[in-house]
Design a protein that fits this description.
single chain; mainly alpha; 2 domains; transmembrane; membrane; transmembrane helix
């Protein structure tokens, strides 16, 4: 049987005594410090809150750096050649509408999210 308790307990008896010692220390009674801990905790300064812009910058800067690192390893030549060929075959109105769509996706949407105030 795989769940037999005799086969699972293969440790020597020495470790059991150490486990018993740790268990006893964990469940030991509270050591009275005459209110020192409470007084010490009361004297600690209140935790400071970060500026919301700083909180967002702490997230945005590493994400931007990691994104740039990943994009630097992207096979640009294999992507750019077919896109450039397709780009040459488009008319002006299609290019303008796609430019506006790309602008909204890459600039306006992240800025709107940044100013939305949701964390």
């Amino acid at each position: 049987m795989m769940n037999d308790s005799k086969t699972l307990n293969t440790r020597p008896a020495q470790s059991d005594s150490f486990d018993d010692f740790l268990r006893q220390q964990l469940h030991a009674a509270y050591i009275d410090d005459d209110g020192f801990t409470a007084q010490f905790m009361a004297r600690l300064p209140a935790p400071k809150t970060l500026n919301p812009w700083l909180e967002k910058a702490i997230i945005a800067v590493p994400v931007l750096l990691i994104s740039l690192l990943v994009l630097s390893h992207f096979p640009w030549r294999e992507l750019v050649q077919p896109v450039y060929g397709w780009f040459l075959l488009q008319d002006l109105t299609s290019l303008l509408s796609m430019g506006v769509a790309v602008f909204i996706a890459l600039v306006v949407a992240p800025v709107a999210w940044l100013f939305s105030g949701e964390s």
